[in-house]
Amino acid sequence: MFSPLISKLSHGADLTGVDHQRLAKLARTRLVGAHRNLIERGDRPQDVHLVLSGFACRYKVLRNGKRQIVALLVPGDFCDLHVAVLGAMDHSIATLSPCTVADLPRDTILDLTERHPRIAHALWWTTLVDEAILREWLVNMGQREADQQIAHLFCELLVRLQVAGVADANGYPFPLTQEDLAETLGLTSVHVNRTLQAMREAGLIVLQKRQLDIPDVERLKAFCDFDPDYLHLVKRRE
Amino acid sequence: MFSPLISKLSHGADLTGVDHQRLAKLARTRLVGAHRNLIERGDRPQDVHLVLSGFACRYKVLRNGKRQIVALLVPGDFCDLHVAVLGAMDHSIATLSPCTVADLPRDTILDLTERHPRIAHALWWTTLVDEAILREWLVNMGQREADQQIAHLFCELLVRLQVAGVADANGYPFPLTQEDLAETLGLTSVHVNRTLQAMREAGLIVLQKRQLDIPDVERLKAFCDFDPDYLHLVKRRE
DNA sequence: CGCTGTATTGACCTCCTTCAAATGCGGTGG
DNA sequence: CCACCGCATTTGAAGGAGGTCAATACAGCG
Fold first, then answer.
1. Which residue is nearest to nucleotide D28 (CA to C1')?
2. A62 and B128: CB-CB below 8 Å?
3. Is this structure's pTM higher than 0.85?
């Protein structure tokens, strides 16, 4: 049930089997349909939310109605680990596909981190990686052209989903619409569409029926100059 | 000496006078010229670095030589508060103007936070605000046009510099070149130049001799739809 | 006064957007 | 099983924001 989180954390810290147990004991999960708000701007959530399956996103909407997705949340990602420190949410979170979500009482988390430094350290690590991803997205939007931008996002998701244990070696389920993709990359859906077509023709990707396959992962990585160092993955001890 | 940091922290947490003392005691500062690297990608800094005056930036360079600035560091901002958790730096940090920088031994910081929860909380707060700023920059690059983008950055800096106590009500020293500005906004310096001219003609800004003045702050904020909630400032107790 | 880095300008180009219509497709109800 | 609906994808034509290249003007500084 909590395996995506545990799998992910094991790439960022040395969690022992005992620690795993502690996390798994917190289970209280629910199913959420696609396109539902999990948290809205201005909220002060009491529980900590965790995505266990499906895709969700952080987003902000401008006065003119435009929406910018500022993060994709995949299995193992926290929605609001630390709002308590900030007070109110400055952005909203919504599902992009059906998701299973865990609600963890904030007190439980606080208690857990206080008593188990390794867990605290692992959670620390996740938020710093989230920040590093934001920086890389900024580079992506600022300096790369649409095709490389899309390719880079696909490469990042491949790694992140593999780390969570929900992607195979060269592909994964990809429920986002072209519109969603456009909103995360700062493009229009029309241009995303045309760019995807070009990438398909170039044999870089196979994207159909909400499934992305990458025939030649190394080639795609080279195409967009992908370097996963910003994900700060640590060699996993078997 | 440490007033920018202390001034800033007081907007994010309830620090008492005693806490102030503790921070101030750590002083070991130095002057750094403009365009010097403070930290490079791959480094594992031992000390924690803090900007006390001047402008610095986080940046990443692509293989093709393009540079993207992913954060501006102003007085009171930390460079690398938490690399210890991540290991190596995934980006570099350089000065944009002459800066005074403080080097704080990591152990001192660890010790301080462990023994003084309020300080720990305040430092927590700063890193979460940094993350919120990244999200807003993503919105800026993805959804706003050049003129609003520039305006938004200017508004953000006005608030941040005021919070640090180094800006007056409607302006501040602005040492960045148009090239620097271009690299932070994902534009070219040519286009930044033309856009700045238009903004000057519109009376939105006065930018000359490395000094930015904003004749009508409310107007500029309205122009770019600026909402400072993402900076998570707390009403300061006098 | 000359040097060097920054700002400015012009001409041209292209990536991406806009608007609008058409096509395709999964799901549902008859 | 088929017709139909709603949503997502695809396509076309035209326009605009921003990029590229390269020359010129300007300003601070030793």
1. B209
2. no
3. yes
Cα Rg of chain B, angstroms = 18
Position A8 scores a pLDDT of 93
Chain A interface residues (partner B, CB cutoff 8 A): 58, 60, 62-64, 66, 68, 70-71, 82, 85-88, 90-91, 121, 124-125, 127-132, 134-139, 141-144, 185-186, 225, 229-230, 232, 234
Task: Tell me how far apart the alpha carbons of residues A9 and A12 are, in angstroms, rounded to a whole number.
Answer: 5
Sheet of B92-95, strands arranged across: B37-39, B92-95, B56-61, B67-73
pLDDT (0 to 100) of residue A215: 98
pLDDT band of residue A236 (cuts 50, 70, 90) is low
**End-to-end Cα separation, chain B, in angstroms:** 20
Q: Is the pLDDT of residue A18 over 80?
A: no
Domains of chain A: 3-126 (2.60.120.10), 127-231 (1.10.10.10)
**Are B143 and A230 a contacting pair at CB < 8 A?**
no
Backbone angles phi, psi at A74, to 5 degrees: -115, 170
Query: What does pLDDT average to over chain B?
Result: 93
Dihedral, A218, A145, B180, B36 alpha carbons, nearest 10 = 10
**CA–CA distance, A195 with A198 (Å, rounded to integer):** 5
Phi then psi dihedrals of residue A52, to 5 deg? -110, -25
Query: Cβ of B190: how many Cβ atoms within 10 Å?
Result: 11
